[in-house]
Design a protein that fits this description.
This protein has 277 residues and is mostly helical. The radius of gyration is 32 Å and the shape is elongated.
Length: 277
């Protein structure tokens, strides 16, 4: 059947009939094991790992990725490309679970193996995101910049959009408004490019809806950034207003007390005058 297991399994996975996809991949794997076809085994292990990741069964996915990673020292039959993919996907599986610290070593190892800019692009992005999520924003920006250096090799405009969006957010977190603005400009250029493609027409969101979401996203982030930028001035003004309110409250109470005191004194004087008369 040759490539038939890959084609049929991929087709089932694309339309989300995961059980049938798994069945086909496993059948292909059994055939590869019977024929001692190790390279095909590695390819099917990778497909099964991706399938279980799609099912959010990351432990099972990692078991397949690890089987491929065990070939790391064997470069004789072209396994290294799949080892790089498995290392990256292993790191990604930890990212999906929010375990960014565990993801970083696998992503770094993947970079050491990958050769082309296209392959490195997504790993640079994931490393950038992992470091940003770990609070190491400057390190994250370094990897986003590396992704930017090779993004031209990546044909998917949606990947460009995501990169510039992440860069914009990362620069905002370190108050680098100049680079944030530059990233936002590239972000909008990529949006316009995407809107002109057939991919946008087939996307579940129309170009207009996507643009609307982007505008909202940007305006919200701008508002947060401005609050952060002027937080001390805003804090002073809020404190000053609260102090004024407190003083007005005290003065009002004091006026009320003085008024009552004045009424009491007048009543006392009136009583004294009545007695005297």
């Amino acid at each position: 059947m040759g490539r038939g297991w890959f084609i049929l399994g991929n087709a089932y996975k694309k339309i989300r009939i995961y059980e049938k996809a798994k069945e086909v991949y496993l059948e292909g794997l059994d055939h590869a094991l019977e024929n001692n076809d190790e390279l095909r085994q590695v390819k099917l292990y990778h497909r099964l790992g991706l399938l279980y990741s799609a099912l959010e069964d990351y432990e099972e996915a990692r078991s397949y990725y690890q089987t491929i990673i065990n070939y790391e020292g064997d470069t004789s039959r072209g396994y290294l490309r799949y080892v790089g993919k498995a290392l990256h996907d292993m790191g990604s599986s930890y990212m999906y679970e929010g375990n960014y610290k565990e993801a970083v070593p696998y992503l770094r190892k993947a970079l050491a193996i990958k050769n082309s800019d296209t392959e490195k692009f997504i790993t640079y992005m994931d490393l950038g995101t992992s470091y940003v999520e770990l609070g190491e924003h400057e390190e994250g920006i370094v990897y986003y910049q590396k992704a930017k250096e090779c993004y031209i090799a990546v044909e998917s405009i949606k990947e460009h959009i995501e990169l510039f969006r992440l860069m914009d957010l990362a620069y905002r977190k370190v108050d680098d408004h100049k680079n944030s603005s530059a990233s936002a400009d590239l972000f909008y250029v990529a949006i316009d490019e995407f809107a002109a493609t057939k991919e946008a027409l087939n996307n579940q969101y129309s170009a207009a809806n996507l643009k609307s979401w982007i505008d909202k996203h940007q305006s919200e982030n701008y508002f947060v950034a401005q609050l952060k930028k002027y937080k001390y001035i805003i804090g002073f003004l809020v404190g000053f207003i609260l102090l004024l309110i407190f003083m007005l409250f005290v003065i009002r109470r004091q006026k009320s007390k003085l008024k009552n005191l004045g009424s009491t004194i007048l009543e006392e004087i009136g009583g004294i005058i009545k007695k005297a008369s």
